[in-house]
Design a protein that fits this description.
alpha+beta, eight-stranded mixed beta sheet, 8 strands
């Protein structure tokens, strides 16, 4: 966990903790079976991605929030992020989840099938750029009729989780 957090700090900087997506992750554990790292030959963590349980609006359907995706800065453009994305999407689908949302750059995430086409009636809990709220349906129709603010769901972190 410490190696992942250090990588996130190097790759994304200290402002990462102030993002709207972080508000949905704070105090929660990643969705069961959906936290991944890439390691170099020495075992060092060089990439990470996690998916988090969310609810789409008040009483809306369950979905996943992806992020953050991070790669060691000196290793960017080497395919690590793409491999992590493909693996995370595949595992989420295998586990039966209906949709994945994220806040990110459409040109990058579009190649994995993400778009803003189905997120117009959804909102993040805090400041964000609407055109960067993207979604990927893993099951057709899973985003039909969704509206409202995305809310955190899933397992909460317990005090004992921090004891090493």
């Amino acid at each position: 966990m410490q190696a992942r957090e250090a990588l996130l700090d190097r790759a994304m900087g200290p402002k990462r903790r102030k993002k709207s997506s972080e508000k949905l992750r704070r105090g929660r554990r990643p969705s069961e079976g959906l936290a991944f790292v890439a390691r170099d030959p020495s075992g060092a963590v060089v990439g990470t991605v996690r998916l988090w349980d969310v609810t789409l609006g008040e009483g809306g359907p369950a979905a996943l929030l992806l992020g953050p995706l991070a790669v060691e800065p000196g290793l960017k453009s080497g395919g690590i992020g793409s491999a992590l994305m493909r693996h995370a999407i595949g595992e989420a689908a295998r586990l039966g989840h209906g949709a994945i949302l994220l806040v990110g750059d459409a040109p990058y995430y579009g190649r994995f099938g993400f778009s803003a086409d189905r997120t117009g009636s959804l909102a993040m809990p805090g400041p964000y750029e609407r055109h960067r709220l993207l979604a990927l349906e893993l099951k057709e129709g899973s985003l039909d009729g969704t509206a409202g603010t995305i809310k955190a769901a899933g397992r909460k972190v317990k005090a004992l989780d921090f004891v090493a």
